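ok new one. same drill as before - C-alpha cells go in, u give me an amino acid for every spot. 331 of them this time. try not to just spam alanines like last time pls lmao
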C-alpha cells in the first residue's frame, strides 16, 4: 500500500511545464525537454525557446516564466519588458562554438584549395568522349591546386575597439551592443574604398616607376628613399596597404636577383618604419584614428580631421626625424 501511495503522490504533485519553440531546434534539444517532462503547448506555454526569431512582448503568454535563447546574445529579445514581468531570460553561450569552429576550418580549406572553383569547373564539363574529357581535366586541374594551409599564419580580426567605444558612450547592456556595429559602417565603407584604391594601384602597377627609380640608386640610398616615399604615401592612404604593395614589389626584385637577401631585409625594415611612423600625421594612415574620426564619438569630443592632424603633428615630426636618422645610421 505504501508503495502505491508513493507512486500516486509523485504523479499527482509533479509539476507539468509546457514550452513553445519559435525556430527550428535540433532534435537533441527538444528530446531533452520531452524526457524531462516538458510538453509542447502553442498557446499557454511556460517557456519559449528561440534562436533568431525577433520576439516581441505581444507574443508572451500569461504563464510565461522563462525565455531561452539557443545562441549567444539577447539582441532579438525584449529583455526590459520580460524583466518587468518577472520573466527570466537566458542564453546558451558556447553552445554553437564547435559548429563555428568547423565552419572556420571548412572556410579555410575551401578558400585555400580551390574546391568550389574545381566543383564549378567539373559541372561545366560536357563531352561524350572519355579521352577528351580526361584531357580537359588533366589540363585544368593544376589551376585549382591552391595552397597548403599547414605552416601558414592565420590572421584574426576582432571588433574589440568597436565594443569599447560603444561602452564609452554609455551602452553597456549586451542586447544593445548591436548599435556598436552601426558605428563601424562609415569606417568599413572607407576601408572598402582603400581596398579598391590599392587594388587599382596594384593592377595598374602605378608604384612600379617609384620602385624602379629607387632600385636604380646606390645601395646605401635605397633605404632612406623608401622611408620617405612610404611615409608620404602612407599619410595619404592606409599604411598597411602601402606597405603591402612595396613589400611585394621588392620581393619580386629579390626573386629576380635584382637585390640581395641582405638588401631585401634592410629595405623591408625601411618600408615598415616609413609606413608606420610618418603616417601618424593623418587619420588616413592610421585605421584606429580613422575609426575614431568616423564614429559618433567624434562630435562629442569635438574631434575633426584637422584637429587630429594638429594633435599628432609634434609626434609625427619628432619620430619621423628620429626614424629617418636611424635608417641612415643603422641600415
Amino acid at each position: 500500500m505504501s508503495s502505491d501511495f508513493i507512486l500516486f503522490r509523485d504523479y499527482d504533485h509533479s509539476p507539468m511545464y509546457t514550452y513553445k519553440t519559435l525556430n527550428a531546434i535540433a532534435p537533441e534539444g527538444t528530446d531533452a525537454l520531452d524526457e524531462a517532462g516538458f510538453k509542447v503547448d502553442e498557446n499557454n506555454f511556460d517557456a519559449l525557446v528561440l534562436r533568431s526569431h525577433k520576439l516581441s512582448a505581444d507574443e508572451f503568454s500569461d504563464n510565461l516564466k522563462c525565455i531561452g535563447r539557443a545562441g549567444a546574445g539577447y539582441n532579438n529579445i525584449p529583455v526590459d519588458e520580460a524583466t518587468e514581468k518577472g520573466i527570466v531570460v537566458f542564453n546558451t553561450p558556447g553552445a554553437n562554438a564547435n559548429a563555428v569552429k568547423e565552419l572556420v576550418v571548412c572556410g579555410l580549406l575551401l578558400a585555400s584549395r580551390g574546391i568550389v572553383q574545381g566543383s564549378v569547373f567539373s559541372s561545366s564539363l560536357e563531352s561524350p568522349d572519355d579521352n577528351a574529357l580526361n584531357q580537359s581535366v588533366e589540363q585544368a586541374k593544376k589551376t585549382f591546386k591552391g595552397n597548403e594551409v599547414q605552416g601558414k599564419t592565420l590572421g584574426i580580426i576582432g571588433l574589440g575597439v568597436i565594443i569599447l567605444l560603444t561602452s564609452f558612450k554609455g551602452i553597456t547592456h549586451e542586447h544593445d551592443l548591436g548599435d556598436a556595429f552601426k558605428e563601424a559602417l562609415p569606417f568599413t565603407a572607407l576601408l572598402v574604398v582603400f581596398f579598391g584604391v590599392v587594388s587599382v594601384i596594384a593592377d595598374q602597377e602605378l608604384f612600379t616607376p617609384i620602385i624602379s627609380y629607387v632600385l636604380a640608386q646606390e645601395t646605401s640610398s635605397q633605404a632612406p628613399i623608401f622611408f620617405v616615399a612610404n611615409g608620404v604615401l602612407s599619410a595619404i592612404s592606409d599604411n598597411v596597404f602601402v606597405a603591402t604593395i612595396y613589400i611585394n614589389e621588392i620581393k619580386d626584385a629579390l626573386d629576380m636577383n635584382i637585390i640581395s637577401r641582405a638588401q631585401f631585409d634592410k629595405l623591408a625594415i625601411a618600408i615598415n618604419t616609413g609606413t608606420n611612423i610618418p603616417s601618424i600625421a593623418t587619420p588616413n594612415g592610421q585605421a584606429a584614428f580613422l575609426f575614431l574620426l568616423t564614429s559618433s564619438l567624434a562630435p562629442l569630443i569635438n574631434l575633426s580631421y584637422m584637429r587630429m592632424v594638429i594633435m599628432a603633428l609634434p609626434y609625427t615630426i619628432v619620430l619621423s626625424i628620429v626614424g629617418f636618422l636611424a635608417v641612415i645610421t643603422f641600415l
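The first helix runs from residue 2 to 13. and btw Residues 1-13 have pLDDT under 50 and may be disordered.
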